[in-house]
Amino acid sequence: MTESIRCVVAVVGSLNLDLTVVVARAPEEGETVLGRHLRTYPGGKGANQAIGAARLAPTAIVGAVGSDHAADVLRGVQQRAGVDTSHLRTTPGPTGRAVILVSDDGQNRIVVVPEANSLLEAEDVTAALDALDPAVVLTQLELLPAVTWAAAQWARDHDRRFVLNPSPVIDLDEYVLAGADPLVLNEQEALHYAGLPAGTPFDAIVTRLLEQVRTVVITRGGEDVVVGTEDAIEHLRVPQVDVVDTTGAGDHFAGTLAALLGTGEDLFAAARRASADAARLVASRRSDR
Ligand SMILES: OC[C@H]1O[C@H](O)[C@H](O)[C@@H]1O
């Protein structure tokens, strides 16, 4: 008899087919620019995070895709990465899409059209987490607020680690924020949730966030990663690389971090390793990842 492997990370999250246009520079308002080429890639913050986590620990994705070809593509990509897709719902209609502009400096601008992602319901999440019984629940904010709430509530009720990547930025319920351990976010998101203006010193931002959440990890691109707990705030150095495409790097960071935390790594060590992995990703084209 084969023993089933315990799920370490359950990613409650979005899956999108990314339509990516590479441009020399992003257009200004009212301006037209020529794109270099258009490519499609499997994406969605949840899907990207699940792939990052699955490299290090048994991982499942809890989400929804549509009933189109994109759904087959995304499910196949998850399965080939070793992600358990048995809690991926198929809903009538299209799968989520994202339109992404990547400019020559490697930076991106993203518009997400949620489609099937917005059909995932709180009950789906609770039932899936009951069945998977993960050590860590990782989520972001491309799903309905009630779904995020259900993920946070399940983790709290079952005393499991809740890793929250509050992206894209919305006005988030205090209850959801309070469970975050850690809250994983970038600089702009950190300013928003801290309610502080640009230019505020990072330790002050972390201190403010720690009034709302248990632990904080702020990724600052090539600058550093700031990790805050009730005992210490540390600025971790990140590897310096030539930036090719930053798309999905933050997701990869969050997935890696969740997997390492789920396997018993300490937060500072996990953030160090996750930033090294994310740096490697940023230095490569998505087609080569
Ligand atoms: O973080 C990058 C991701 O954001 C959006 O979800 C896109 O689908 C893309 O893959």
Summarize the structure.
By secondary structure, this protein is α/β, with parallel strands linked by helices. The protein is 34% helix and 27% strand.
Features:
binds alpha-D-ribofuranose, Ribokinase, nucleotide-binding, four-stranded mixed beta sheet, alpha/beta, UDP-N-acetylmuramoyl-L-alanine:D-glutamate ligase, ATP binding, 289 residues, 13 strands
How would you describe this protein?
With 289 residues, the protein is α/β, with parallel strands linked by helices. It has a single domain (9-15, 44-93, 117-283), classed as Ribokinase (UDP-N-acetylmuramoyl-L-alanine:D-glutamate ligase). 34% of the residues lie in helices and 27% in strands. The protein contains nine helices and 13 strands. The chain has helices spanning 45-54, 69-80, 122-132, 145-157, 174-178, 187-194, 202-209, 249-262, 267-282; strands at 9-12, 16-23, 35-43, 59-65, 84-90, 96-103, 108-113, 136-139, 161-164, 180-186, 216-219, 224-228, 233-237. The strands form two sheets. A nine-stranded mixed β-sheet has the order 5-4-1-8-9-10-11-12-13, with helices on both faces. Helix 1 packs across helix 8, helix 3 runs parallel beside helix 4 and helix 6 packs across helix 7. The structure holds alpha-D-ribofuranose. InterPro entries: PfkB_dom, Ribo/fructo_kinase, Ribokinase, Ribokinase-like. One of its GO terms (molecular function) is ribokinase activity. One of its GO terms (biological process) is D-ribose metabolic process. Keywords: ATP-binding, Carbohydrate metabolism, Kinase, Magnesium, Metal-binding, Nucleotide-binding, Potassium, Transferase. Residues 9-283 form the Carbohydrate kinase PfkB domain.
